[in-house]
Write a structure and sequence with these properties.
The longest helix has 27 residues. Helix 1 packs parallel to helix 9, helix 2 crosses helix 4 and helix 8 packs antiparallel against helix 9. The protein has nine helices and four strands; from the N terminus they run H-E-H-H-H-H-H-E-E-H-H-H-E. With about 220 residues, the chain is α/β, with parallel strands linked by helices. It starts with a helix and ends with a strand. About 35% of the residues are buried. Strand 2 and strand 3 form a beta hairpin. The protein is elongated.
Length: about 220
Amino acid sequence: MLKPQDHQRIAKAVAVAEAKTSGEIFCIVAGEVSKYREVPLAYAAAVALIAPPAALLLGLHPWTLSTLGNGWASAPDLGQAVSQALGAYAALQAILFAITAFIVAIPPIRRALTPRFLKLHRVKRTAYAHFASTGLSHVETRTGVLIFASLDDKQVELVADEAIHREVGDVAWDSAVAALVKGVKSRDPASGFVNAVEICGAALAEHFPPAGPHPDHGDGVVEL
């Protein structure tokens, strides 16, 4: 997802920013935070439930499939005709479900059809989980910042610790998110991360000056 030189650019931006503050900045770039397996199933169920009734409203009768086009009158009795019609209806639903699920499961199609609110929820949840796992939530000064981007989901999330919210407010974080979003949308995530890190670093330096060496978090950049 990132070229070696892009990784180095982001790591350098993190190092420069952290040299001016006691705050910690960590960047994570992911391809896709979830497989969204429920999405193909939801679309398949919707098509299987809606398409057959819609076909009936349009005058298409599934029971004609079971009698090779001879129509309702050719059935020996009403019970057999109803049974054939219900069987054809159920078979049609099963076929529609399978075909729709297969098509929607193709990654580019699934990504396009996945609701944005679901992507936002999964990205936010993943970002908070990584904020805890990286140890930023245990920084004594409560000044950890995680900058997270999911490139395939085209969603970003910035998680800042409580001390930062009290001192900095939302303006700097909104600007950092906007810079990262711009980079992701323009297919230049490295520049987006660098700009976001510089904005966060400036905000941290203003309110939280250096106070000794930083804990070892590597180079501050991780690809998932």
